[in-house]
Design brief:
Elements (H helix, E strand, L loop, with lengths): L2 H5 L3 E6 L7 H11 L3 E7 L4 H10 L11 H10 L6 E4 L6 H10 L3 E4 L7 H14 L3 E3 L7 H11 L6 E9 L14 H6 L2 H4 L3 H18 L3 E9 L10 E8 L4 E7 L8 E8 L2 E6 L5 E6 L5 E4 L7 H5 L11 H21 L11 H20 L3 E2 L5
């Protein structure tokens, strides 16, 4: 019997955020249910109680489980025999910490969108709480769950490219390449353009956290120190739309880091290159199913998702043969599948698989990295990343 068959049912998931007009909500819901590990059964879909209940009905949820507030959902689900097992948080950035804390206090596992918190201190608090309550806490860094970024990590950790010397990572977008501040303020723009709600540096909260995590994940190293240029490409803008940094990893490798949401013509362009003393590998989001491996003195190889020689855990992260497109939804689904399998194994008293999904400790490192970048801009010097080692 499979692990899911032995457990007897899908895990029940409560959603926080992701209403009918959200794009990230359907991504989380469909990914969680894609392989049958979770079933979304309850939710809070708006900060307005009446709108939340109405949104649940529009999305097809049971009216009795479409709640007005997170506190109401947690209390009502606690009293049910078929109550939720986990919470997925995709609400505005400033709510992540209090909602995640409440979920952990209710004894639930958590899948949280980024940024996991507003500060490093808050992330450390959640990490300690999750450990004390023996709860699982995953972060939705889906770029680290593509089969080829998983294989890139495998190649680095197995020594295929030798000792890592240089890591170059960038994430370029164009959503803030115009003066969106001067146009109509949608509900999303109202909180995104408010620094008190979107985070310490908007571009870092939006895409920079993904970028740092991907680089550290593939390189297998945390960032030890950084010197950064933190600011805005758009004149007069109050929120941060650009960060460029030189980074040094705990293992001694050097790196470059660039993120912006204000590059005209950019289109979610993520690129990663990792250079070792034997060669390098390269991955980009536009061709997510392929990984380039170039070893010194050998022909360049292009490895594809689904190639039969890949490690079993990398093949398992894909679902279709090579040449058939897979993308972000499937990567999200890999995170949900790994979270569910770990929880089921724990519940059944079985050996817990060593899944590499991003955890709250990774989120704490990301928040320390963001704070180091901001401190570097303020102080004009290299800054140590708290807790890196």
């Amino acid at each position: 019997m499979t692990l899911r068959e032995r457990f007897g049912r899908p895990l029940r998931l409560g959603l926080v955020g992701g209403g009918p007009d959200s794009w990230i909500g359907p991504m989380h819901r469909s990914a969680a249910e894609l392989d049958g590990w979770f079933r979304a059964t309850a939710g809070v879909f708006s900060s307005d109680a009446a709108r939340s209940r109405a949104a649940g009905a529009r999305l097809g949820f049971d009216a009795a489980r479409s709640y007005g507030t997170v506190a109401e959902m947690l209390e009502a689900e606690r009293r049910r025999e078929d109550g939720i097992d986990a919470v997925a948080i995709m609400s505005p950035n400033d709510t992540h910490y209090p909602f995640a804390k409440a979920a952990l206090e209710a004894g639930l596992d958590v899948m949280c969108d980024k940024p996991v918190t507003h500060s490093h201190a808050q992330a450390l608090d959640l990490a300690a709480m999750a450990k004390a309550r023996q709860r699982l806490f995953a972060i939705a860094h889906a770029y680290s769950a593509y089969p080829m970024t998983r294989h890139a990590r495998h190649l680095v950790l197995s020594g295929a490219i030798g000792t890592v010397r240089l890591v170059q990572v960038e994430y370029i977008q164009s959503g803030l390449a115009t003066r969106v501040e001067d146009g109509p303020r949608t509900n999303r723009l109202r909180w995104v353009l408010d620094p008190q709600r979107s985070g310490q540096a908007l571009v870092m909260s939006a895409i920079g956290c993904h970028t740092q995590h991907l680089a550290s994940f593939v390189a297998g190293q945390t960032v030890a120190r950084v010197v950064a240029d933190v600011g805005s490409l758009m004149p007069g803008r109050e929120v941060v739309d650009h960060v460029s940094a030189l980074i040094e990893f705990a293992g001694g490798a050097r790196g470059t880091f660039t993120v912006t949401q204000a590059a005209a013509g950019g289109e979610n362009d993520i690129r990663l290159r990792v250079y070792g003393d034997k060669g390098h590998l390269e991955w980009n989001h536009r061709e997510a199913s392929y990984l380039k491996l170039a070893l010194q003195g050998e022909p360049v190889r292009v490895i594809g998702r689904g190639d039969p020689f890949l490690p079993p855990e990398v093949i398992a992260a894909g679902r279709a043969p090579r040449g058939h497109p897979e993308g972000l939804r499937e990567a999200f689904a890999n995170l949900y599948a790994e979270l569910a399998q770990e929880r089921m194994a724990i519940a059944l008293g079985e050996a817990v698989p060593a899944f590499p999904y991003p955890r709250i400790e990774d989120g704490a490192h990301t928040m320390a990295f963001i704070e180091a970048c901001i401190a570097s801009q303020r102080e004009g010097r290299w800054v140590q990343v708290a807790g890196a080692g």
